[in-house]
Write a structure and sequence with these properties.
The structure holds two protein chains of two kinds. Chain A has 17 helices and 22 strands. By secondary structure, chain A is of the alpha/beta class. Chain A is globular. Chain B has two domains: 61 residues, no CATH class; 263 residues, ABC transporter involved in vitamin B12 uptake, BtuC (Orthogonal Bundle), CATH 1.10.3470. In chain B, helix 3 runs parallel beside helix 7, helix 3 packs antiparallel against helix 10 and helix 8 packs across helix 10. The longest helix of chain B is centred in the middle third of the chain and has 30 residues. The radius of gyration of chain B is 21 Å and the shape is globular. The chains are: A alpha/beta, B mainly alpha. At the A-B interface, helix 10, helix 11 and strand 18 of A face helix 8 and helix 9 of B.
Chain lengths: 516, 347
């Protein structure tokens, strides 16, 4: 394998308003390599690649492609230079077929009859060469996430790119899909493509990348070949000196705080034969039964989209229950309104926090009281107490390091990481008996993830019961006292701490029943 | 939502930063409209002096401005409250007409009541009729999720015909030569604050209403839920707010405010229902609400400014023969430039 440099970015600087997103960043890409671009949230990985792809204009810096200076003004320009990018959110037309989506915007030979046979043949040829299995005439709506991603990659390859950028490609994939994606990427590199893999998951870069560049706070930290990379070195690069890796919860694999505080006896939440039916009579949650005791973190493992969100929402009264029973603290919850449940002490951290928890046109303080706004001290006799609201907001802003530290700041002006901290601050801000958290660390950097873990364990010690629904098995193995697995809306099996086994959980997640 | 949430030390900077784009937009709008006026062969400075200063030259013109200010502000509030919930009340016109019908009906049918009962009854009838006129589209939205923009607009057309019918067939005044009802009983007249030129007490009710609306939207739990619903209905629902009820409520409040405007027009100014009394208050109310960006505290100021322009424009038409529509162009341009300033600032 040759290792000639195909692309070099020098001294890249980008400023958004008053925020320096990138400062004097260097990046080099060799031909035939898979290059991991690693960094926490807000490190500037995506911004850097968006500049390369012509979506942003850099404020300073130069890009050299095969030793020639280039000025890429738009994605069209980038594609002409042989650079393609697959974004986290796919840009596809759901009602079109795979072939139609791929050729969209390219010259088509038979443009009036729109017979796409030749194009289809080329796509099949490409798909076979790189092992990207798709059904060319299938409609996008009918495809699972992994297949849609292959379509997106084919879209770039069809346009003849030799540099392919993938932005957090594994986010919505099952473990098997991740595996097959990585195999395809290997094949592409062997065929002569260069791949940039943007990610925050260091175990992924260690598995598949040839070289790894780490960014932190908009600056280049280092670039090293995989042979020289260790987990610890990469973490150091990503978080700097602020996290003590040795004592970090994030990198711990053993027992955490189990010896001091045992799970209580009193059940806080009891779910019996819960049923949730979807709009077209489709069962979303079927015969779901479990019990969460005080001082217990109860985990739900499963591949995304197997009824996790519906389960969480039905517990919170957001979604109507079609059958079964719920008891909270010995009182039946059937038919209770969300506002009553919140008042009784259930908190919810939704998975899609921008959609399900964020008020962009309100300020930080107003966001922090959403759901609690009817309770004292925030309001009394239906009138708001702004003094108390702002007082609490200032405390939480300090504790959760929300920037800017101003309760009156417009929430829409906050950066993604700060919005996440805002949502977590609200989730943990009030004393609760039960916390329902769905992927609470998704999109968080290591420092914030660490914080969530310690908060969860701290609240557990104080007696809170938690339902932790997560796509991240490592997270569940670290934190939970028991883990149940959900598959197509049904609880497949439950494991106790001490008998946790990643592979058995994996089997249950794919629907193989092993336990009752 | 968050207009009161300003830290004191930021106050001045906030005010300046908030005010400068407005000033620039107004100046730019006048410059642009000046090109039209000049092209039509009129004297621009003279025209603008007439538009801007007529209101302050004579007591009559000033009181005329205040009389215009009352319905404009109430209509703008009637637009802004649903806007907080991200709902567009384009039915203000019909709601004002129904408010006027309600006040007229009370003023005619209950003529025997003593004044201290009759006037409040007439005003309450106006508020109620306006609210009910908005309640139908609001209910369609609540029950069947039918777009409120469409239904509120359509309700305007029904209101026109209803007004026509009442002013000709029910209580028509045959001597008027224009669809007009007979006058309401004097007991339903709004008392005067200044007798000559006449200024009725409606302005006090209007200002008090503005204060109440401000307190409602910014200091109450329900007002918070209204803003939260407008900001992100899905998140509001997840956190226990009944968003459909908030939509319903916001439109009904909007209708009540427009109904109050109609009632004040009847009891304070016209003393009868006259076809066409709704003027162009709908368009102006929307423009004011949008220029103020739904900020309840800014609405009275903007409404007063627009009232000044309106009164100045009719004077300009009388003395200089410049069509009064030119001021509508100015108002529209102000709005466009303010929206433009927002776009630029976001870049």
């Amino acid at each position: 394998m040759t290792s000639s440099t195909i692309l070099r970015m020098k001294g890249i600087r980008k400023i958004f308003g008053t925020v320096v997103a990138l400062d004097d960043v260097e990046f080099g890409l060799n031909s035939h390599e898979i290059h991991g671009l690693l960094g926490g949230n807000g490190a500037g990985k995506t911004t850097l690649m968006n500049i390369l792809y012509g979506l942003y204009k850099p404020d300073a810096g130069e890009t050299y492609l095969r030793d020639e200076k280039v000025d890429i003004k738009s994605p069209g320009d980038a594609i002409n230079h042989g650079i393609g990018m697959v974004h986290q959110h796919f840009l596809q037309i759901d009602s079109y077929t795979v072939v139609e989506n791929i050729v969209l915007g390219t010259p088509v030979r038979n443009r009036y009859a729109l017979k796409l046979d030749e194009e289809e043949a080329r796509i099949i040829e490409l798909a076979e060469r790189y092992g990207l299995k798709v059904e060319p005439r299938a409609r996008i709506t009918d495809l699972p996430m992994g297949a849609r991603q292959r379509v997106e990659i084919l879209k770039a390859l069809y346009r003849g790119v030799d540099i392919l950028i993938l932005d957090e490609p594994t986010t919505n994939l099952t473990p098997q899909e991740v595996e097959s994606l990585f195999q395809c990427l290997r094949g592409m590199a062997q065929e002569g493509l260069s791949v940039v893999l943007i990610t925050h998951k260091l175990r992924e870069v260690l598995r598949v990348c040839d070289r790894i560049s780490v960014l932190r706070d908009g600056r280049s930290v280092f670039t090293i070949p995989r042979e020289e990379a260790t987990e610890e070195a990469l973490v150091r690069g990503m978080v700097g000196e602020e996290v003590e890796v040795k004592t970090s919860l994030f990198f711990r694999t053993g027992e955490v705080g189990r010896d001091t505080v045992k799970v209580g006896e009193r059940p806080i939440l009891r779910v019996e034969k819960l049923q949730v039916i979807g709009p077209q009579g489709r069962p979303l949650v079927t015969d779901c039964s479990f019990e969460i005791r005080e001082r217990e973190i109860f985990g739900i493992a499963g591949v995304a989209g197997n009824g996790q969100q519906e389960l969480a929402e039905s517990l919170l009264g957001i979604r109507p229950i079609a059958g079964g029973n719920l008891w909270f603290d010995e009182a039946s919850l059937a038919g209770a309104r969300t506002r009553d449940l919140v008042e009784k002490g259930i908190t919810y951290i939704p998975e899609d926090r921008l959609r399900d928890g964020f008020l962009p046109k309100a300020n930080v303080a107003e966001n922090l009281i959403l759901g609690y706004h009817r309770q004292e001290p925030y309001s009394r006799r239906r009138f708001l107490n702004w003094k108390a609201i702002f007082g609490t907001a200032r405390l939480l802003i300090g504790e959760y390091h929300i920037m800017p530290p101003n309760p009156a700041a417009m929430a829409a002006d906050l950066s993604g990481g700060n919005i996440q901290r805002l949502m977590l601050a609200r989730g943990f801000s009030r004393p609760a008996k039960l916390l329902v958290a769905h992927n609470p660390t998704r999109g968080l950097d290591i420092r914030s993830t660490e914080f969530v873990y310690s908060k969860l364990l701290e609240q557990r010690e104080q007696g809170m019961a938690s339902l932790l629904i997560s796509d991240d098995l490592d997270e569940l193995l670290l934190l939970c006292d028991r883990i149940a697995t959900i598959y197509r809306g049904q609880i497949v099996g439950t494991l106790e701490r001490g008998e946790f086994d990643k592979y058995e959980l994996g089997r249950m997640m794919s629907g193989v029943m092993t336990r009752e | 939502m968050s207009e009161l949430a300003v830290q004191p030390r930021h106050n001045v900077r906030f005010l300046v930063a908030g005010f400068v784009p407005y000033l620039l937009a107004v100046v730019a709008a006048f410059l642009a409209a000046g090109i039209f006026i000049a092209a039509m062969g009129f004297n621009v400075p003279e025209a603008y002096s007439s538009i801007l200063f007529t209101s302050f030259r004579t007591p009559t013109a000033f009181i005329q401005t205040l009389l215009k200010f009352v319905p404009l502000m109430l209509m703008a509030l009637g637009f802004a409250v649903p806007l907080k919930a991200n709902k567009f009340n384009i039915g203000l016109e019909g709601q004002l007409i129904l408010g006027a019908i309600g006040a007229t009906a009370a003023g005619i049918l209950l003529a025997d009541l003593p004044a201290f009962l009759l006037l409040p009854m007439a005003i309450l009838a106006g508020i109620l009729f306006g609210a009910l006129w908005a309640a139908l589209p609001a209910w369609l939205l609540y029950r069947f999720n039918i777009n409120e923009i469409l239904t509120t607009v359509l309700m305007n057309f029904v209101a026109f015909s209803l007004m026509d019918y009442i002013a000709t067939e029910v209580w028509g005044d045959p001597g008027a030569g224009h669809p007009t009802t007979i006058p309401i009983a004097p007991g339903a007249y709004m008392p005067l604050l200044v007798s000559s030129p006449p200024l009725n007490a409606g302005i006090l009710i209007a200002l008090l209403t503005a204060v109440v609306v401000y307190i409602y939207t910014n200091r109450t739990v329900s007002g918070y839920e209204l803003g939260a619903t407008g900001s992100n209905p899905r998140a509001s629902m997840v956190y226990g707010i009944n968003t459909r009820t908030m939509f319903l409520l916001s439109l009904i409040i909007g209708g009540a405010l427009a109904g109050l405007a109609g009632a004040i027009e009847v009891t304070g100014v016209q003393h009868r229902l006259i076809e066409g009394m709704q003027s162009n208050y709908l368009q102006l109310g929307i423009i004011i609400g949008l220029i103020a960006k739904g900020n309840i505290r800014a609405i009275p100021l903007v409404a007063f400014f627009i009232a000044v322009l309106e009164v100045g424009a009719s004077a300009m038409q009388r003395t200089m023969m410049i069509p009064v529509e030119i001021v509508f162009i100015v108002e529209a341009l102000i709005l466009i430039f303010i929206l433009l300033a927002d776009v630029i600032r976001r870049r």
